[in-house]
Amino acid sequence: MQVATATPCSSGRLLRLLAILAAALLLFSAQPASSAGQSVKYLPGYDGELPFHLQTGYISVEDSELFYYFIESEGNPLEDPLMLWLTGGPGCSSLYGIIYEMGPMEFDIHNYTGGLPKLRYYPDAWTKTASIIFLDQPVGTGFSYSTTQEGWPSSDTKSSEQSYEFLKKWLEENPQYLKVQLFVGGDSYAGKIVPLVTRLIADGNKNGGTPYLNLKGMVLGSPRTDNIIDENSKVVFAHRMALISDEMYENAKEACNGSYSNAAPNNTACHLAIEEITRCIRDLFRGNILEPRCLFVAPPQTESDAIHAERRSLQAQAQEEDEDEDGTLDFLLSPPRIQNLWCRAFNYVLAYEWGNDIAVQEALHVRQGTVAYWMRCNFSLSYTKDIHSVVSVHEYLKTIALQVLVASGDRDMVVPFVGTVKWIKALDLSVSEYWRPWFLDGQVQGYTEKYDNNGYYLTYVTVKGAGHTAPEYHRKQVYHLFDRWIHYYPV
């Protein structure tokens, strides 16, 4: 039998052909697949078929591939409102909102014995009464990724612009929802992004942008709004909650002239007063001052991870005010070392186990290899906080016919309610319903006040005993609050 041998010339052509083929394959693999959403009927950890319609997918925006979960209303999806939901951080996955705050699923935390966490249906979900797009934004959050190195850095401005472009493209792919009422919602740091996106929608509609979006309002939970107002409010909140004495508060108020977050470098008296207050509150869990504060570091996967985890731990303890806006340090995942000690961060362990399971990612139609490790909140984002205040954006939006819901947990020291009330008052709206309690099952669940300005209606609500953010602490109560408000019933 004769064996063919390659000449040097043919061998060179073969190598060049292989190189061209390899380059073509690399180019092809870098291209995003079809962005059309795909239905998810079954999820690992849930017994049987999902009792609601879940769709997941990607939308290409510039060089970013933005991942989303869409849950259709269990009521009347062709008439119920549609809401784009943005979780804060920045960098916290929208899966957090689905599992822990407002979605129709939750982990069976109390019966967890290891392995893949079990999911169970949660009945008091916002998706009972509205269709919600849960978006992983900015790029680098959850399962969203960039196809280029240059596309990874983001900012408040870029994130809001990309979220707006995402929404337009999603509605073009799902035109049956163009006619229903549209709301933009978000919590924590997304309190800055939601008004920016809403303004982009309003301006796009006014300037003839397509498609026309049927914008009706905003939902803001514990919203980061103005850096100075929000930070200054922490001292006022600490005094109101009896965390600092009258003397400490009055001393700081006089020394700092009411400005606690940006005192002049040479104002020694102010800095000393703030140090005294900090010593009193530093050991509190700021997400909810009624709950324990704990620091537990996740077990490292490699030696490199161990070094980075140690650095993150030290940085977090030294710069607690720079932690993610939901008030927790998200690498704190180890089980409790003290018997009967529970901390809220323990609830998040299951999200990591579930979100990083290959079978789960396949069921969600996640593109393998695009995200090395799923995190509830990604602290390694290349992100610039370039918008320090959106009060002026609210000033602009109050001239538009909108329905706005702003909710605060009254035990939240990440974005205290006193700061939220201050910027709302600064909008100089007319009070249409004065401060009163709101009820569920015959019990006071918080307090509310309503404002208006020629077709712009803002309902402010506190949730009694809730932290940052309120739906995680009182999920049922906040659902019924949302259900009333979104369908124009009195709160």
From TrEMBL:
Keyword Transferase: yes
Keyword hit for Mitochondrion: no
Signal peptide bounds: 1-35
Keywords: Acyltransferase, Carboxypeptidase, Hydrolase, Protease, Signal, Transferase
Pfam families linked: Peptidase_S10 (PF00450)
Gene Ontology molecular function: any one: serine-type carboxypeptidase activity
Highest taxon listed in the record's lineage: Eukaryota
GO annotation terms (biological process): proteolysis; secondary metabolic process
Family according to the record: Belongs to the peptidase S10 family.
Name of the molecule in the record: Putative serine carboxypeptidase-like acyltransferase
